[in-house]
């Protein structure tokens, strides 16, 4: 039998496909003269010699020195407060399949759409030109914005031959483009796991069956004046319990865990065997228990293949011994993204399904930072980044403005850097002290934390900073520590967990 339908059978096949598409509410662009796919972007290869049809930041221009095809291409230079975005708004058909592609050159170059569909893809960089592409289906709206941009502080990027295939009409190009507002450069949706693959808006199934929104807390394996607790005393308002902390050994990279003798004595002789049983108890209640590595005084260093192997093997041994669900990286004295990434993948493959991080604010200001690079390198297995929004002072937000710790704006404007930098919304959470005694600075009321979560997920409760889009998948919050929260009547957990239940 011929693998191709005969010409006589083609009309029937087209009719069948059209009927199926109609039933699904999706328009198909079929290969016929009446509905052929075409590039509906204006000036897609910048061959006009200008930015006609595009709306760009002031650093963008058309150059003739380098082009993928033809004689011109787009060049845009990001700055510390500008991603160098160029965008074009087009009219599309609702519920219709489209394909977008572009040839780009440079580091951290993004191609995406917003409006009727929200999707993007990106590349960390490579030598020469490479093609980015994504396929998507529009929603009910007929307005779609196609955009290209680099990333804050990165070198200039090039783009050429931008192609949006599907039914529609290119916009009028007679007027000169104007510079977008600051909010235009902040509309980047969640980036995909792999630089050149099509994104999806759904959350990948991982993280050890955790709820959509979670509260993480640190259980102190020491006595520092906060209320001491057996592990089984931790209330179920905490979804993830991070055991603080694993200890460095004399073997480079390797860690161990020993129940603190002073804590054991304070709890009336709390034994290692009882601790292990408590791990099983809280897990039976639906809570996850992970071992945290680092802390303020942590001295673990993973800087080569040998120490990465030692680290991974020792953590996997702790997972096997104690039944931990994974590992938390809380190294506050530098991190090697390459070798720690290797170690985390080995831990994940060995049964550590929950992988979290707790970087300081300075670590996540730029994608060039080691922690940010690590998070992006292991994005496909990463559960959540609980950045510490405290002990920080003032920091830059994603819009370039400076915000002071202890405010809703500090939480929302800084978290947006991680979202624009490539993390999914379900991988971003607020890390706060549970009381004024738990940190040197940056404490704010649990109600502020709830307001900030609502701002990110629902665009309600915002202060002066308002994200350009909502993030219904925003993961939640973390606190240092459960013990300090217990000393304060669990005010943080009770308030924040109630707020989590009201998120989308």
What can you tell me about this protein's structure?
The chain is an alpha/beta fold. The chain is 23% helix and 24% strand. The strands form four sheets. An eight-stranded parallel β-barrel has the order 12-13-15-16-17-18-21-22, surrounded by five helices. Strand 17, helix 6 and strand 18 form a beta-alpha-beta unit. Helix 8 (446-458) packs parallel to helix 10 (491-501). The longest helix is centred in the middle third of the chain and has 18 residues, at 305-322.
Strand composition percent? 15-25%
Radius of gyration equals 25 Å
Q: What composes the largest sheet?
A: 8 strands, parallel, barrel
Could you give the order of strands across the largest sheet? 12-13-15-16-17-18-21-22
- Give the assembly state of these chains: single chain
Helix content: 10-25%
Shape summary: elongated
Number of helices: 10
Q: Return the structural class.
A: alpha/beta
- Average the pLDDT over all residues and give the rounded result: 85
Name the descriptors.
eight-stranded parallel beta barrel; six-stranded antiparallel beta sheet; elongated; alpha/beta; 504 residues; 22 strands; 10 helices
Question: What does this entry show, briefly?
Answer:
The protein is an alpha/beta fold and 504 residues long.
Tell me the layout of helices and strands.
Layout: H1 10-24, E1 55-56, E2 60-63, E3 73-76, E4 86-92, E5 97-105, E6 109-115, E7 119-123, E8 130-137, E9 143-149, E10 157-165, E11 168-169, E12 214-220, E13 240-248, E14 255-256, H2 261-266, H3 272-284, E15 288-295, H4 305-322, E16 326-331, H5 337-349, E17 354-357, H6 370-377, E18 384-388, E19 395-396, E20 402-403, H7 408-421, E21 428-433, H8 446-458, E22 476-480, H9 482-487, H10 491-501
Parallel strand pairs: 12-13, 12-22, 13-15, 15-16, 16-17, 17-18, 18-21, 21-22
Antiparallel strand pairs: 1-4, 2-3, 3-10, 4-9, 4-11, 5-8, 5-10, 6-7, 6-9, 13-14, 19-20
Helix pairs in contact: 4-5, 5-6, 7-8, 8-10
């Amino acid at each position: 039998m011929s693998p191709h339908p005969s010409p006589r059978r083609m009309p029937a096949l087209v009719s069948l496909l059209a009927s199926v598409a109609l039933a699904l509410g999706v328009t198909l662009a079929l290969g016929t003269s009446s509905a052929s796919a075409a590039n509906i972007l204006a000036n897609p290869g910048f061959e006009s010699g200008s930015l006609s049809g595009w709306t760009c930041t002031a650093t963008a221009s058309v150059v003739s020195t380098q082009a993928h095809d033809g004689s011109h291409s787009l060049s845009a230079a990001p700055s510390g407060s500008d991603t160098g975005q160029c965008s074009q708004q087009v009219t599309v058909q609702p519920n219709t399949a489209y394909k977008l592609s572009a040839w780009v050159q440079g580091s951290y170059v993004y191609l995406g759409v917003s409006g009727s569909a929200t999707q993007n893809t990106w590349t960390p960089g490579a030598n020469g030109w490479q093609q980015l592409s994504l396929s998507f289906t529009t929603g009910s709206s007929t307005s779609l914005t196609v955009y290209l941009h680099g990333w804050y502080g990165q070198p200039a990027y090039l783009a050429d031959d931008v192609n949006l295939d599907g039914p529609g009409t290119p916009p009028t190009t007679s007027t000169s483009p104007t510079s977008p507002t600051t909010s235009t450069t902040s509309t980047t949706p969640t980036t995909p796991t792999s630089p050149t693959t099509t994104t999806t808006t759904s959350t990948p199934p991982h993280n050890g069956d955790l709820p959509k929104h979670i509260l993480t807390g640190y259980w102190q394996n020491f006595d520092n004046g906060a209320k001491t607790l057996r592990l089984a005393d931790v209330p179920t308002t905490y979804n993830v319990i991070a055991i603080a902390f694993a200890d460095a050994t004399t073997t480079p990279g390797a860690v161990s865990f020993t129940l603190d003798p002073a804590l054991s004595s304070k709890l009336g002789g709390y034994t290692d065997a009882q601790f292990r049983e408590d791990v099983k108890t809280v897990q039976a209640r639906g809570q996850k228990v992970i071992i945290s590595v680092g802390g303020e005084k942590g001295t673990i260093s993973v800087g080569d293949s040998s120490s990465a192997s030692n680290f991974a093997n020792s953590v996997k041994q702790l997972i096997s011994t104690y039944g931990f669900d994974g590992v938390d990286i809380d190294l506050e004295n530098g991190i090697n993204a390459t070798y720690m990434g290797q170690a985390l993948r080995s831990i994940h493959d060995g049964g550590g399904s929950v992988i979290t991080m707790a970087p300081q604010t300075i670590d996540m200001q730029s994608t060039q930072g080691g922690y940010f690079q690590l998070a992006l390198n292991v994005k496909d297995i990463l559960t959540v980044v609980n950045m510490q929004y405290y002990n920080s002072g003032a920091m830059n937000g994603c819009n370039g403005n400076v915000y002071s710790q202890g405010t809703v704006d500090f939480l929302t404007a800084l978290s947006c850097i991680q979202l624009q930098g490539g993390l999914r919304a379900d991988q971003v959470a607020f890390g706060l002290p549970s009381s004024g005694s738990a940190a040197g600075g940056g404490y704010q009321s649990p109600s502020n934390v709830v307001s900030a979560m609502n701002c990110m997920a629902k665009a309600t409760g915002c202060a002066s900073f308002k994200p350009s889009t909502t993030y219904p998948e925003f993961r939640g919050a973390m606190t240092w520590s459960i013990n300090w929260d217990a000393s304060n009547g669990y005010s943080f957990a009770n308030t924040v967990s109630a707020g989590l239940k009201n998120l989308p």
